[in-house]
Amino acid sequence: MSVSTFRSGALALLLPLAVSACASLPDDWGRADAARLAAERGRALPQTSNVAAYTREQLAQPLTPQATVSLALLNNPDLRARNARLGIAAADFYEASRMANPVISATRLSGDSGPRSQLTLGIGFDVLGLLTLPANRRNAQAGVEAANFEAGSAIVELATQAERAWFEAAAAQQRAQVRELAARAASASGEIAQRYFDAGNINRRQLALEQAEAGSLRLESLAAQAQAATERAALNRIMGQREDSAWTLASPLPEPAAQEPALDALLREAADSRLDIAAAQQQARGIAGRYRLVRRTRLIGDIELGAEREREYDGAINAGPSASIRLPLFDWGSGRKARAQAELDIAEARLDGLVLDAGNDVRAAYARMQVASERARTYRETLIPQRETVVEFLQREVNYMLAGVFELLVAKRQEYDAYAGYIDAVRDYWIARADLTQAVGRTLPIETAAHEHQHDHHDTTSNGDAP
Q1: List of residues 6+ apart from 229 with CB closer than 8 A
Q2: E-assigned strands of 48-112?
Q3: Are residues 179 and 221 in contact, defined by beta-carbon separation less than 8 angstroms?
Q4: What 3-state DSSP class applies to 455?
Q5: What is the pLDDT of residues 80-130, one digit of tens each?
Q6: Inter-CA distances, 444 with 166, 240, 266, 450, Å
Q7: Taking the model in full, what pTM does it have?
């Protein structure tokens, strides 16, 4: 082969390298694609040019679940870290789209017969990398798409977690208020019992029972306050706030929706909307491509083509092409093939598991949501009105000295317990609905209940903290 012929061949080898150099890293690493996927599922990122000002504005007014989601999507450090992984996938695609850098070699040999030396210069290119470049690029592109799906899934998941945290915090706050009212009523009962005991109207056992009940309800109130503080801190964390500022929660908890989508429709929606399933599909596709490439090339060692220029001891110049190949004498690539096969099996099993979990998660969350909705309806329409009626009639009987004050206090405590149970049922409903949203993979339509909220504890205790 002549030197001119080799040079022409070398230019042909370098042409794909020049073409591949046109590809570049995206400026946002694919964040816009992830945001678009999340927005299509009802979890759009807030559009603001000043995150700090937007955060202050939202925290200055009572926080709604929607505002909590917006603040979490803007400030949560875990989401920022998750989005940063897009850069790794973009970097992998960038590297897979390019040939390996050429290798330059130089050798200088000195002879014994004189001062002249032999100098050999060479340059080599990885031919196997060039031949597999299109396949590597396709596999890396699947990795980029999987990373975008995963980032979109992280946005949807964080939004659901933010909603869940809001409902936990709001319920804990209302429950603490109810338990505080119950403790104050029990404390008043203990004081009355002490006066009755001092007057000789009750014995020591009756006094001890009333005071023990007051102490028990005080402990429940303190526990509820601690739980409220814990849930508030968790909500603060998910919103990405360093300090617990004086933000307040919008209250009371909204009532359960009047009607829910059908279960069959939600199951179909989950099959189409789950971004984690889409990500797993892309990952399996990319791994399958790498497995096919390993099977085709496992017996082919490194192939390198290049050129050498040699200056002899007498000053003569020799130049020409060079080639090298790694012979598969000891390693036939069986280990690489087995590893690729195992990675593919893992990816396919993970995909099957996600598909299986999607249906089961939807069914389980749907069942919990229905049960919690029925519990809340029973409290609202049956138990709470009955407790209120008992307190109302006992109050009249006490006024006419037909019933004892301690009997009225017991009824009042049972009324507070009904309020607390209602709060727990509504909280469980919205948490189950948030879990259902995550299981489906997109937000669900809400049809507001037709009736007004009748039994939040602010209204039911407006006539006094204790009888």
Answers
A1: none
A2: 103-110
A3: yes
A4: coil
A5: 888 888 888 888 888 887 777 888 888 887 766 666 778 888 888 887 778
A6: 17, 25, 9, 18
A7: 0.79
